[in-house]
Amino acid sequence: MKQEGIQAKMRKKWKVTTQQSKKARVIALNHLDQKFLVKEPNQVWVSDITYISTLEGWLYVAIVLDLFSRKVVGLSIGSPLETNLVTKSLNQALYSRDLNKGLMHHSDRGCQYTSLEFRELAKKNGIKLSMSAKG
Fold it and tell me: How many of the other CB atoms lie within 10 Å of CB of 122?
């Protein structure tokens, strides 16, 4: 490789971009409790955030999945990892689906899901929040 003047492409080190909040968080009980069999649509929605590497840098993807059909009902993509990302995906799900009374939304305990903005959006729409146990 040295004789040919070529070198291996080096991967960049992964860098943690999330920070723990010093504020006390309101955490919902785990109402789902690993009961993944749902009898009808729009009873239980589950959410999570992931990240993807692009040529422009990291992008974060927040999804809302209907546990009955396993279909994505809400999706939001953005570069800052902020609460707006999860509220956009939930709003999209609310817009695209008929809301059932007693709808449960399950997520992890991330600061986006425990934020006042997200909790108020859920309360306004009569959504029962559920969060997984500490991992």
Answer: 20
Q: Is 100 helix (H, G, I), strand (E, B) or coil?
A: coil
Tell me 26's DSSP state: -
- The hierarchical CATH code for the domain 44-131 is 3.30.420.10
Residue 128 pLDDT greater than 80, yes or no = yes
Sign of the four-CA dihedral 28, 34, 36, 37: negative
- C-beta of residue 76 within 8 angstroms of C-beta of residue 98: no
- pTM for this model (two decimals): 0.78
What does DSSP say about strands 57-66 and 71-78: parallel, antiparallel, or unpaired? antiparallel
Residue 75 exposed, middle or buried by CB count within 10 Å (0-12, 13-18, 19+):
middle
Residue ranges per domain, the chain? 44-131
pLDDT at 14: 66
Contact 92, 75 (CB under 8 A): yes
